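re: ur question from earlier - yeah i can do the single chain one, its not a big deal. heres the input i used so u can compare w yours
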Amino acid sequence: MTSSSRPTVLLTGASGVLGTALLTELPSSCDVVALIHECGCPGAAQQVRGDLTAPRLGLNRAAYADLARRVDVVVHCAAVTDFTKGPGATHALNEAGTRAVAEFTADAGAVLHHVSTAFVARNELTRSRLGRETGEAGARPEDYLDSKRAGEQVVRDSGVPAVIVRPSIVIGDSRTGEISAFQGLHGILLMLLRGLMPLVPLPAASLIDFVPQDVVARSVAALIADGRRAGEVWVTAGPEALRAQQMLDLVSDTCAELGLSTLMPRIVGADMVDRLIRPVFLAGGLPKRALRRFDDMLAMTALFADAPVFPTSLGQLAGEQQPLTSSQLTAALRQTLLHLARAKNLGNAPEPTVARPMAAGVSA
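and the output i got, formated as tokens:
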């Protein structure tokens, strides 16, 4: 580990959603080294090619030792987030890969900032755990959540100084909506924009907790700057999260802004879907691909139906850091919808106007 006042940060997952956002937030105060796998990372000045599933991070002994001597902080963002990958591939990176990162952190005498997910608190709300039929769904949130809980346990058992960071759903940049790769929520939003969701199996008051990627990145950067070495940090909207009906209203307003004549879905209870709508009206009348898409949506929305409010750690750092408000979240989601519309050539989406970054801070 170096003794410089300017820390060297090893960033995994640098080409992913949070990694790309972190690359814009960290360089002003840190020297960042991106651990890359197959593809390069244009935003990283320093890159090391490695593999989290291989011994010594896929490096030879000399390269591994040299990297360990340089690194003060490890930010571990790399993860399988695709709910359809299955338990084997998911655990290989999210659990075993985290073990390799923790071992490197110990060898470097560094501090680990492990990016997990707030949804570890909702592991029992998957349809399979609730005893509901999963149908044709390829999405299995339980595999992802099991792997992230296991990854957190690896960090706790490792004995290295570590901060576990738990963001909720990560959407695009709060100012532009831009994101390096569309996520699960983007798929649902796209179906809504295209009028392909006739119903939403959620109580209207269900909280849909999301945070913009730049807010998460600045929160991690603030933790590093603060010298945080332990604790669990929840980067969530908490009680300010938008409700399902508010999100549908925003989608409707955005469709009007885009000049799209899109019918909004009907909100129904999951029990009605399971007892009547799916077996009677959908199972025999939808192509298999469409039915699988519907069942994937059921799998994902189960995590929100009448779920408790997430804890939140936002708003406690010094300076101008403030908790997120529902109006800020509404504005950020609008930008995500507009960016999605631009990317998919839907309607007449205006170009983004970059404003002041959305402020958010954290406490342990």
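The chain has a mean pLDDT of 89. not sure if urs matches, ping me
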